[in-house]
Write a structure and sequence with these properties.
The protein is an alpha+beta fold. About 25% of the residues lie in helices and about 35% in strands. It starts with a strand and ends in a 10-residue tail after the last strand. Bound molecules: biotin.
Amino acid sequence: MEYIGEWMLHDMEEVGSTNDEVKKLSANITGEKVIISAQRQINGRGRRGRSWIGLDGNLFFSQGLECNLNAIGAMVFISTLSLWRTIQDFNPLLKVELKWPNDVLVNNKKVSGMLLEKGEGDYLIIGIGVNIKISPKLVSMLYPCTSLAEEGVDTDRISFLQSYIENFNSYYAIWEQKGFEQIKTEWLSHAKGLKSEIIVHLDNEDISGIFTGIDENGSLLLTTEHGIKKIYAGDVFYPQRKQVVNE
Ligand code: BTN
């Protein structure tokens, strides 16, 4: 067990899911901020019942922190903004964008995903996977993926985690001092597809409209022909623009 600032870090050799490990831990602690990371994750879970493939050299970790129910929305944006900042700091010229609600894209491909779950008591679990060295290449992938190594960023999982936590602490402090509005404005300035047409896959339908922003709880605001719709959960896609070729 070691500490990164006030975060107690436990780097395990192999786990089913780091989220499950933090969930177990949260039954026996109060107040502490904990992180469990793993060298191998064999049963990683993704959003909306999907799985997360655990390839060697990549980063799998979960943060556990006590969090008021009303602040959960803010945590998503604090975490993804911190991932954005960590990657962008490695190479300020890289195209790093945020995809609602909690993916990070590098050169239009997904490099990181997040699964938020509730632990015991007031514990919130923020589970994050970052493709550091390699990305899954399956035809069945919902969205094209990449890794930092494939995009020319040379780092390792623990160095990345340490920088991420520093950034998380800074954005958390901004949120405490200035509130969600400040976080939201910065998040939107890095969001892919703002003010453009997007398609959102919901459980039973797809809806398209103009991505006009997020509300105070982090819901996506979509302007459709039937008015503004608030989306609480879904998968965002960007329509392919047809290329005009002059011959
Ligand atoms: C997604 O994009 O669908 C979310 C993926 C979240 C994966 C991470 S890896 C660490 C943590 N443990 C899990 O089982 N899932 C999250």
